[in-house]
Design a protein that fits this description.
Blueprint lengths: L3 E7 L5 H9 L6 E7 L13 E4 L14 H8 L7 E4 L5 E2 L3 H8 L5 E8 L4 E2 L16 E4 H7 L9 H11 L4 E11 L2
C-alpha cells in the first residue's frame, strides 16, 4: 500500500501537468494522487496507475465550488486509501523528496507541516518557527487519515482554509510537528 495520497483540486489550469510532473519525479514512488476537476470535464488523461481522476464535482453529487480548493478537497476524502493524505494545488509543485521525508520521519504525530517556498524565496513557516500561525502556514501539510476520519473534520469555505483547517485540528487535540524541510513550491 502507498504511504500518501495527494488530493489535487483543479480548475483546468495549464499548470496541472507541471504539478503532476513533480509527483512523478518523487524519489519515493509510494504515493497516489486524486485529481478532482471542479465543475468541468477532465482536461487531461493520465496513464500512471497511481493517478485517479474525478471528472467533475457534479459526479460526486455536488455543485461546482468555483475554485474553492478546500471544498473540493473534502469531496476526495472518502476515496483516500492510504495512511496519509496531502494536498497539492494545480498551480504548485512538490520537491522530489516530499514522500521520502515523510517516510523517513516516521512521525507519530497526527499531522506534519512541511515548509514551502514562494517564487520570491519567502519560506513558510519561516525557518526557526515551529508553530501554525495565520499567514505563516500553508497547504504544505499532510494528515494521518485515521485521525481525520474519526474526527470528521473537513475544510470550511474561507479565504484562508488551510490555516483554519490546521488550527481546528490543533484545537481538537491533533498532535503535529513542523518539519524543517522545504518540500512545496508555491507557483514555481
Amino acid at each position: 500500500m502507498s504511504l500518501i495520497t495527494f488530493i489535487i483540486p483543479s480548475i483546468g489550469r495549464p499548470t496541472l501537468q507541471r504539478a503532476i510532473d513533480s509527483l512523478l519525479a518523487q524519489s519515493n514512488p509510494n504515493w497516489r494522487a486524486i485529481i478532482v476537476f471542479d465543475g468541468l470535464p477532465a482536461t487531461q488523461q493520465f496513464t500512471d496507475p497511481r493517478i485517479s481522476v474525478i471528472e467533475s464535482v457534479e459526479r460526486l453529487g455536488a455543485q461546482s465550488h468555483n475554485g474553492n480548493a478546500g471544498m473540493v478537497r473534502n469531496l476526495a476524502f472518502p476515496h483516500v486509501q492510504t495512511e496519509w493524505v496531502g494536498f497539492l494545488d494545480d498551480d504548485d509543485t512538490l520537491r522530489s523528496h516530499y514522500v521520502e521525508y515523510l517516510a523517513q520521519a516516521q512521525p507519530s504525530e497526527d499531522f506534519v507541516l512541511f515548509r514551502m517556498q514562494t517564487t520570491s524565496g519567502y519560506i513558510i513557516p519561516q525557518v526557526g518557527s515551529n508553530s501554525v500561525v495565520l499567514n505563516d502556514a500553508g497547504i504544505s501539510f499532510c494528515v494521518r487519515m485515521t485521525k481525520l476520519r474519526t474526527s470528521g473534520q473537513v475544510f470550511v469555505n474561507s479565504n484562508c482554509e488551510d490555516f483554519v483547517f490546521m488550527n481546528t485540528m490543533i484545537n481538537n487535540g491533533f498532535s503535529y510537528q513542523v518539519n524543517p524541510e522545504i518540500v512545496y513550491n508555491v507557483r514555481f
